[in-house]
Amino acid sequence: MHPNQGWPQQPPGYGPPPGWGPPPRPSTAPAFLAGGLWLLVSVLCFVLAGLNTADGVRQTPEAAVALLGLAFPRSVIGNGDPAIVATYVAGGVVLLFTALVLARLGFARWILAGLGFLVVAYYVYAVIRLTINHGGTLIIVPGIALMLWLTASMVSVLPPVGRAMR
Q1: Which of 25, 26, 38, 64 has the most CB within a 10 Å radius?
Q2: Is 18 left (phi over 0), alpha (psi -120 to 50) or beta?
Q3: Is the pTM here over 0.85, yes or no?
């Protein structure tokens, strides 16, 4: 007697019963969503640094306050050129690791998330310092940058993004 004798046969063209077989592959959409958010962060860094490159931070003070490091005291940051360079470098690093996230390399999302949370802490400091020093009208651009960096960082550490990297 054959071991499968007596089992009902399925008509041709039908797959195994539900719950049998390999699990479905996770969607890659969360990885591309995270990559798209990081791409926006990179573009923001390049735009902020580019707006202040020609004439220094005096050119666009509303955007200059969102440069990375400019909220530190003048004795630390000097004339603002290091903040422009830091913002360009951050944009380039984010762009590099964004390409790796879009190639679905899992370690890149953790590096971006770590960098993102570090920059978020800086922007929280910058917004608080601007508010204390009566620069309330200037916190719009750093606030937008804070939200964008925070959103990209939070999306990167979500479990669906990790599953999409596999």
Answers
A1: 38
A2: beta
A3: no
Residue that is written with structure tokens 């630390």 in the block: 76
Q: How many CB atoms are closer than 10 A to CB 6?
A: 7
Q: Is the dihedral of CA 45, 47, 49, 52 positive or negative?
A: negative
Instruction: Give pLDDT tens digits for 65-122.
Output: 999 998 888 888 888 889 999 999 999 999 999 999 999 898 999 999 999 999 999 9
**Pairwise CA distance, residues 106 & 23, whole Å:** 21
- Report how far residue 160's alpha carbon sits from residue 72's, in angstroms, rounded to the nearest whole number: 37
Q: Distance from CA of residue 118 to its chain's centroid?
A: 12
At 1, the pLDDT band (50, 70, 90 cuts) reads: low
Label residue 30 by pLDDT band (50, 70, 90): very high
Give the rounded distance of the alpha carbon of 134 from its chain centre. 30
Q: Tell me the C-alpha distance between 85 and 157, whole Å.
A: 28
For residue 67, the tally of other CB atoms under 10 A from its CB is: 29
